[in-house]
Design a protein that fits this description.
heterodimer; A: 248 residues; four-stranded antiparallel sheet; 10 strands; 27% strand; globular; B: 292 residues; mainly alpha; ABC transporter involved in vitamin B12 uptake, BtuC; two-stranded antiparallel ribbon; 2 strands; 71% helix
Chain lengths: 248, 292
């Protein structure tokens, strides 16, 4: 794994109207890395992802993806540049079938790639997520939370991204399902070399599969480092891993 | 019995037109959450532009195609330069914006064509077709044919093509649509183009049966809008059925009760239905994905 920087966020500030919520965030993701972004509710994690993928407009600073500045690039252009964003709460198309959801994930590539190849890719996705094949004709909204999360990830994978942004894939899911989904994330990286920026509140599980991590607190990066180091850090343990620090 | 079939044909003809207008409303509403109350003006423009082009000695086919293209272009310009910059956060403002647009279009049309009524020649001869005592204008047949064709094209596009699914996806989840690399503005532009084109075709088809003038769009637009609301605003098949229902009630009301009361009967029915079932005849109860 080389140290090619895929994503570089440089002194990013973001605001909602007059309120600044990110105060100069620096962050980078190397090629093939899983980087997690941890933090409590309201720390600005989702806003940061929305800035990166172009969904949020009020921002200053720099966001570089493969060296290209993304400031001012709208969200609908990102997927063509090789970035896929799995948003918070999955956001599957609830009244479209599972299969149509997948086709829409690949839709921007259709003119170049052709129907035949995309159909094969969807078959591959079905092999990786057999439950989606079983449910392929069912409406997206009728799937369980875990299945919807798989569908959202599968849909993003059909964009063949170099960088995958995952926003709280564990939200509202049972621990066993969380484990399954995070394992899948790791498999995706290992097999396809996809770089992954993972936003999680579930710090414990996220650190387990990550190479590096950042901790976002009130709109600032409070700590960053190797995932294993952070997992041992006393401050992280007390704040995010639910382990009381017994001595001062 | 002949009366019955006469009313039936009349009802199907005007009902079909209302269905097309209603589908225009639904198409734009689904993609961009805009109720485009200028929809009826597309029909008026289609008919009047065709009249003018025919007046220059152009062949019927060419005038038809050119008129549809021009109205389509007008529809796209409205979306691109006006509706797109409307206050996206507020549906009421957008509705008022489109009312304003319809008044503007009507005003410009009345300057251009005056307040006179024009007759558009029928597609084929004026000779009515008669069998077993029921006579029917040839144009009525053309209208029904055009309506069926348009309905099929809409159905095919929305259900069988990825483009249709992209447009529909905008109505289901706008955020996810953008993340799939689909530009909602482009889809809205396409929706306006489709609605304008279908409106123009319907306007040209219906014009020879009545006369056409700068204000025919008002009533057609209101009836089409009523069909859209009665049908539930989200379900193209529902609004099509509602369009035909309104047309039939109107024709039978005019024939059996009083032609002066035909609009009153239709609207009484709509008010009654909406009081009992506010989501419309075929609308799903709102699940937070649309509906006013």
């Amino acid at each position: 794994m080389g140290q090619v920087v895929v994503l570089h966020v440089d002194h990013l500030k973001a605001n909602y109207g007059p309120v600044e919520v990110l105060h100069g965030v620096n962050l980078h993701v190397n090629k093939g890395e899983i980087v997690s972004l941890l933090g409590a509710n309201g720390a600005g994690k989702t806003t940061l992802l929305h800035c990166i993928s172009g969904l949020h407009d009020g921002k200053q600073g720099g966001i570089y993806f493969n060296g290209v500045n993304l400031m001012g690039v709208p969200a609908e252009k990102m997927v063509g540049m090789g970035m896929a964003h799995v948003p918070e709460r999955r956001q599957v198309f609830s009244t479209l079938s599972v299969e149509d959801n997948l086709w829409l994930g690949a839709s921007h590539r259709l003119p170049k790639t052709g129907k035949k190849i995309i159909r094969e890719e969807i078959e591959e996705i079905y092999q990786r997520f057999p439950i989606l094949k079983e449910r392929s004709a069912q409406l997206g909204g009728t799937l369980s939370g875990g299945q919807q999360q798989m569908l959202a990830i599968a849909r993003a994978l059909l964009a063949k991204p170099q960088l995958l942004l995952l926003d709280e894939p564990s939200l509202g899911l049972a621990p066993l399902i969380v484990k399954e989904i995070l394992n899948m994330v790791q498999e995706i990286r290992n097999e396809w070399g996809t770089s992954i920026l993972l936003v999680e509140q579930n710090a414990h599980s996220a650190l387990k599969i990550s190479d590096r991590a950042y901790v976002l607190h009130n709109g600032e990066i409070q700590m960053h480092g190797l995932a294993e180091d952070l997992a041992r850090d006393a401050r992280i343990q007390s704040a995010y891993l639910g382990k009381a620090v017994t001595h001062g | 019995m002949t009366d019955f079939f006469q009313f039936l044909v009349n009802g199907l003809v005007s009902g079909g037109i209302y269905a097309i207008v209603a589908i225009g409303f639904v198409t734009i509403y689904q993609v961009s959450k805009v109720i485009n109350l200028a929809q009826g003006e597309f029909l008026m423009l289609g008919g009047l532009i065709a009249v003018t082009l025919l007046g220059t000695g152009m062949s019927y086919g060419l005038a038809f195609v050119l008129s549809v293209l021009m109205v389509t272009l007008i529809g796209m310009l409205l979306q691109r330069f006006v509706v797109r910059y409307g206050p996206m956060s507020n549906q009421i403002s957008l509705i008022i914006l489109t009312i304003g647009l319809s008044i503007l279009i009507r005003g410009v049309a009345s300057m251009f064509w005056g307040k006179d009524a024009y007759a558009l020649a029928p597609f084929t001869s004026n000779e009515p077709i008669t069998f077993s005592g029921i006579s029917m204008a040839q144009q009525s047949l053309w209208v029904i044919l055009a309506v069926l064709l348009l309905l099929f094209v809409f159905w095919f596009l929305m259900n069988k093509t990825l483009l249709g699914k992209k447009m529909y996806a905008c109505s289901v989840n706008l955020l996810a649509t953008r993340l799939m690399g689909i530009n909602p503005n482009k889809m809205a532009l396409l929706a306006f183009a489709m609605s304008a084109a279908s409106g123009a075709i319907a306007g040209i088809a219906i014009a020879p049966l009545n006369v056409t003038s700068y204000d025919v769009g008002v009533m057609l637009g209101i009836k089409g809008f009523s069909a859209a609301i009665l049908g539930g605003l989200q379900n193209p098949i529902g609004v099509t059925a509602a369009g035909f229902l309104i047309g039939l009630v109107e024709a039978f009301g005019a024939g059996l009760i009083s032609s002066g009361l035909k609009d009153a009967i239709v609207f009484l029915l709509i008010i009654g239905v909406l009081m009992i079932k506010p989501t419309g005849l075929f609308g799903e109860p709102s699940v937070g994905k649309g509906g006013l």
